[in-house]
Amino acid sequence: MTKYNTTIIAISILYLMSCNKEQTTNHQFFVNNSSSHKVEIPIFDGLGRTSLLPNNSYNVIFNERGLNSKLQDFVIYFNSDSVKLIYNDTLTISHGSVNYNIAKDIRKINSYSYESLGDDHKYSYNFTNEDFREADSIVN
User: Fold this and answer.
1) What's the rounded Cα separation, in Å, for the pair 71 and 110?
2) What is the pTM for the complete model shown?
3) Which residue ranges of the chain lie beneath pLDDT 70?
4) Which of 13, 53, 97, 107 is the most buried (most CB within 10 A)?
């Protein structure tokens, strides 16, 4: 190998090592249950049911490359057109149903409070007794 080829390879390696890597941004999602009712989200973690007992919370962190700004529309961990919620093992309601409108849709980012944490983003959804009353009035 010639001295010229060695120099070209060395410069290429240095160039590739110095290239800016695309930054990873954390999108942290907190689902809090401040109601006095148990809430189940059957598809929430993709592994089965997620149960939120009263005064309990659930946290999911997504690391996204190139998605540096606040999310604008739907929450990235719901890959469905509707999400079923079950209150107290008996009352079932779907967020995203075409049969009724719900005040806070867990699939939509505007139902979450938002906080910027530097390069990271925190979203919080809070179940309240009012959410239960709304579901109860729609279903019953």
Assistant:
1) 9
2) 0.72
3) 1-24, 43-49, 61-72, 75-79
4) 107
